[in-house]
Amino acid sequence: MVKAEQYSGLAPALRQQLAHCIDEEFGHVAFVQEREWAQPDWVLAKYEGKELATFCNVVLRRVLMDGQLYTVAGINNVITPRAFRGRGYASQVLRETEQFIFEELECAHGLLLCADALLPFYSRLGWYKLENCSLRYHQPSGEQLYDSNVMLLSPGQQHSFRPQHINLNGLPW
Ligand SMILES: CC(C)(COP(=O)(O)OP(=O)(O)OC[C@H]1O[C@@H](n2cnc3c(N)ncnc32)[C@H](O)[C@@H]1OP(=O)(O)O)[C@@H](O)C(=O)NCCC(=O)NCCS
């Protein structure tokens, strides 16, 4: 079962557990440590018994794409604790997240930023990479340009929307 919870309403113990998982996976990654990141609005988590088996975060944001504002679901921190990996759990959570962001949150698109290695994983789930797209985001020091992969998810898994200029209008995720 996958549960969607508002991040602001999470029990402190669960919030701590999520932070611990995130730190374990990305605490040593300089690109992550050197930047300020958006706080999530939602967490989608799958439990096995009482144990957290996978989760991902959703940041809701009005994002500028080719000069127009769209309500976007920013997906980040897709994490399966090691003991639960390779069982299809992250794929399941991402499929349920797809339903949640389009049907419940009524987002126009999902958007994630990822390294090359994860492109095939997300592509299998209907996400597509934007080629020749410049993406800007805010940092306390000013606006920055992102130089890795930007992937979108569109309703019905269509791949036709391919903006070339994106401004996240806030911190990245
Ligand atoms: C990526 C991750 C969420 C996958 O979780 P999972 O529950 O095992 O995922 P699924 O069982 O649905 O799918 C497994 C597939 O993920 C892909 N995958 C997992 N880790 C990967 C990695 N480091 N590089 C590339 N692909 C990877 C593989 O295609 C794998 O398929 P395989 O088992 O046939 O090799 C998990 O490995 C994890 O938490 N990794 C660390 C955090 C991370 O990198 N998250 C993504 C941030 S963008």
From TrEMBL:
Gene3D superfamilies: 3.40.630.30. It holds the Pfam family Acetyltransf_9. PROSITE patterns: GNAT. One of its GO terms (molecular function) is acyltransferase activity, transferring groups other than amino-acyl groups. Residues 5-156 form the N-acetyltransferase domain. InterPro entries: Acyl_CoA_acyltransferase (IPR016181), GNAT_dom (IPR000182). This is N-acetyltransferase domain-containing protein. It comes from Pontibacter actiniarum.
